[in-house]
């Protein structure tokens, strides 16, 4: 973040926190320059950025004022999806790869990226912990800490659940190469090619790609943009499609941001046990909540081991370290065998470093900062979209994670919009990536995991312009 | 290694190097104790161990002498295997897991283990390099160095090939979670369930387990214990079984220790190109040669990209780090997509550390020590087996790696022997683990990757006793 962006972020926080109230006059450029020990140009650029974001307004020959209108939030997407619940082979991977390829370069404004900014994570501190544990590693741990993984790390993972009243035994946890390997292990352990698997509508494209790679059929089930999958529709699909698994994100679903209530999770756990359908619970955003407490896991209500709960440290602590885990319930033996024959184990020095960081580090403090940063960025992005996108645009208001689900006017073609956006240096994730039936043609997913700096704001303005022209 | 074992190893080296010649008298226990600054008990235990290994002999009231007979090498297994070349579904995994489970504890003498001693590797030095690179890691590398992997690491890998005259472009290399993930990616990229895959007879059980997990059928092809797979038999199998892939270990095959000549590799590369059958070349022992030069890769003769070459650092430098790679030839795009949807990427800090170690470290020096240690251990184990196993036992004489393939008298039941050995604290890898048709009933694979200390020697004596009892 450049100096002027840091200053703008600081002032934006003061406005959000009410230290600066609507109508308040900001210090003059000269005053602020002296007071903040920055150049007048820096102050000027910061004020310009805040003005572009709609937070302050200049009055000629008078100065800059905090805008007096309350910041209005756009409406949320309302309607639950209505997929046809057919079981169909998935053919989406090549479109997804085409789109991802254009998002993988640093030059592009990462609105379509799946990753938050790596600068949000304590990578330097983690590096020091990794340094310490790598230089003191017992050589025999390279054998002992192979699958199911370092006992110390599994203890630390279990401990975090215990703090929230969920009893998971360290012996029930298996460490994997990120949640993605965990999810794939679950799928291939409970399904054979041609089997039907229930997914949300919309759902994370990696889930669809996994189904495609394994030759599985997707059954898309109606999903509410706030409350997650429709349990009545899910039960009908159980009866009609005889699926071998369902893969759901119960907390801060990607892309919707929906979260299921505790009661709904309890009912979900009962439903999958009743129909004996393994539930693969993809719960990687669980720790990124903006509310007062960590949301429940469906796993917490799983009496008979039908829930395979998967998570990771990639979104919360250690991107690029590739450490995740699965608590596979009744499928534990099979999952362990698949892991052993698929990749043997997860990198041992990295496991040991994470265990040590969790034991001694400041994970809670880091998470608190991360959550409030993401929450503030959600508001920043929401407001920018409200300001620059076409009238009638609806934006989700997720209680965690770092994705907005944006419903553009019905006439918008998100695939076309994405192509024009990429041509002007902005990546987008269009709705059809998130659906085996390629629905959601006027939706995009917007990543708010990067600070809304000048470039990102410019990206949003640009997409807004393109969408209006669309 | 305990003090007396280190002393014994030192004296054994002097005998092997000819500094101590047959008939030479060793220093008395008192002399050696004073000269070596160790206790008399240590010298006594060392002499006892050398006597048990058949290297020295005590003469009453006279002292210890280097044995004067030349050390005799046992005969090698001679006959190439004669499998029936049927395509059959594989059902071996649960037997293999039963056997591996009993070998996974430190209490057991690891004759049946698949891993060499972790003490053979520069883990402390690697830890320091990892420390350094982790604390200076560019946060954006957690995004940039995802699949296909760190360019710096891929450059270093390519450079090692170039040194041997093999041109592999860094852009053709994809970093994986160990060779095992690489091999699995290759299999699933080129095969569908029900397809036939050619394997050696015998072959590494992990290959069979991968086939079983993916629902593939194994076609076992005759393999010579010294020169590897029979190319005429391979060509017949191509014609008769229409396989979708073959998975071969061309250098120091596990379990045989066989190695294909350059000419044979060239012919193999031509054969697979002619029949358009992808060759998955599992080449993890390539760097562990005892001869004067690194053996060739079949990949070096691959003009049209039909060879998918897989290797790793797990056996040569960094066990437990889980870093391998694949050079997938014409299947590059598909393999990259599978890797992205299977596990996204390989741990970034670990990739960066290996790149830095290769660039600055003392890899060559470490490898030279490792190779000569393994070669000496091969001789130690071979002699101990010759001394304690039943008459008529044949032992392979591999030019690299760390496995002996031991043919016991025809009446031996290796599965039964293994069970009795485990009961007395020694793990074994019985022949039937290495074959979809469960052949090789009187063979065992012996790991010589651990020093032949007192415990290992006692383990070999014990297996010899059990085998004699039959």
Provide a descriptive summary of the structure in words.
The structure is a homodimer of 470-residue chains. Chain A is of the alpha/beta class and 470 residues long. Chain A folds into three domains: 3-66, Arc Repressor Mutant, subunit A; 122-360, Aspartate Aminotransferase, domain 2 (3-Layer(aba) Sandwich), CATH 3.40.640.10; 368-469, Aspartate Aminotransferase, domain 1. Helix content of chain A is 42%, strand content 13%. Chain A is built from 16 helices and 15 strands. Chain A has helices at residues 3-16, 29-36, 40-52, 93-103, 123-135, 141-144, 151-163, 178-190, 205-213, 231-241, 262-275, 332-342, 348-360, 363-388, 414-423, 454-469; strands spanning 56-59, 63-66, 87-89, 174-176, 196-201, 217-224, 228-229, 245-248, 279-282, 307-312, 324-327, 394-395, 403-407, 429-430, 443-447. In chain A, strands 3, 4, 5, 6, 7, 8, 9, 10 and 11 form a nine-stranded mixed beta sheet that branches. In chain A, strands 12-13-15-14 form a four-stranded antiparallel beta sheet, with helices on one face. The first copy, chain A, has a two-stranded antiparallel sheet with strand order 1-2. The longest helix of chain A is centred in the C-terminal third of the chain and has 26 residues, at 363-388. In chain A, 56% of the residues are buried. At the A-B interface, α5, α6, α8, α9 and α12 of A face α5, α6, α8, α9 and α12 of B.
């Amino acid at each position: 973040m450049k100096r002027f962006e840091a200053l703008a972020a600081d002032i934006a926080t003061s406005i959000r926190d009410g230290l600066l109230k609507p109508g308040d006059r900001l210090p003059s450029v000269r005053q602020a320059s002296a007071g903040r020990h920055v150049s007048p140009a820096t102050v000027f650029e910061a004020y310009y950025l805040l003005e572009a974001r709609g937070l302050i307004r200049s009055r000629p020959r008078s100065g800059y004022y905090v805008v007096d209108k309350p910041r209005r939030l756009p409406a949320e997407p309302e309607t639950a999806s209505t997929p046809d619940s057919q079981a169909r082979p998935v053919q989406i991977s090549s479109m997804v790869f085409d789109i991802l390829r254009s998002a993988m370069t640093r030059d592009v404004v990462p609105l379509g990226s799946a990753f938050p900014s790596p600068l949000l994570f304590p990578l330097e501190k983690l590096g020091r912990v990794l340094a310490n544990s790598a230089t003191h590693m017992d050589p025999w741990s390279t054998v002992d800490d192979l699958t199911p993984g370092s006992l110390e790390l599994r203890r630390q993972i279990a401990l975090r659940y215990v703090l929230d009243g969920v009893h998971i035994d360290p012996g029930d946890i298996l460490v994997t190469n990120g949640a993605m390997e965990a999810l794939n292990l679950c799928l291939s352990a409970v399904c054979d090619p041609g089997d039907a698997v229930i997914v949300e509508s919309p759902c994370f494209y990696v889930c669809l790609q996994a189904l495609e790679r394994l030759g599985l059929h997707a059954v898309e089930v109606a999903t509410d943009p706030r409350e997650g999958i429709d349990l009545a529709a899910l039960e009908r699909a159980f009866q009609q499609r005889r699926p071998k698994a369902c893969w759901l994100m119960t907390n801060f679903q990607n892309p919707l941001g929906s979260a299921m209530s505790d009661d709904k999770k309890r009912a979900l756990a009962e439903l999958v046990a009743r129909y004996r359908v393994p539930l693969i619970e993809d719960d990687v955003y669980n720790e990124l909540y903006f509310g007062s407490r960590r949301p429940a896991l469906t796993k917490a209500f799983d009496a008979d081991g039908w829930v395979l709960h998967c998570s990771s440290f990639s979104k919360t602590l250690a991107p690029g370290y590739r450490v995740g885990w699965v608590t596979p319930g009744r499928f534990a033996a099979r999952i362990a065998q698949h892991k052993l024959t698929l990749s043997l184990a997860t990198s041992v020095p990295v496991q040991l470093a994470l265990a040590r960081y969790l034991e001694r580090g400041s994970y809670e403090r880091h998470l608190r900062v991360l959550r409030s940063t993401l929450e503030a960025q959600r508001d920043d992005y929401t407001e920018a979209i409200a300001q620059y996108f076409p009238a009638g645009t609806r934006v989700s208001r997720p209680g965690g994670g770092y994705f907005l689900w944006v419903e553009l006017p019905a006439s918008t073609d998100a695939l076309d919009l994405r192509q024009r956006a990429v041509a002007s240096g902005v990546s987008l994730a269009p709705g059809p990536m998130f659906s085996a039936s390629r629905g959601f043609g006027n939706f995009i997913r917007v990543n708010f995991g990067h600070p809304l700096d000048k470039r990102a704001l410019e990206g949003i303005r640009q997409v807004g312009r393109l969408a209006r022209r669309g």
